[in-house]
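Form 7-S
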Amino acid sequence: HLGINDPHGMLAVAPQEWADLAVQHDRDDVDAIMISCTATRSWEAVAGIEAALGKPVLTSNSAMLWLAVRHLGVTESLPSCGSLGDRLSNGERCALQADLAAQPLR
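Output:
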């Protein structure tokens, strides 16, 4: 939708534009918003999008951070990852975490 084909262009998109796009493309049958691409400033817009839509927002960067710290055994809340950063804290585990825990690191 943005017509951008390089990381520098993606990085130039302001957080408010990500928020506007999320609101514009939201639908009632959508449970969460996913903003994919690590070369964005969308992370800065997560709290605002969640407040506007009442839905969790996941970005590529927040997902990577969440999984990395969970894999390391950190169970504290990650508020910078939005409402999903609060989930699975206090020792709860998801299926992906269990799968990763069963496999040795290489």
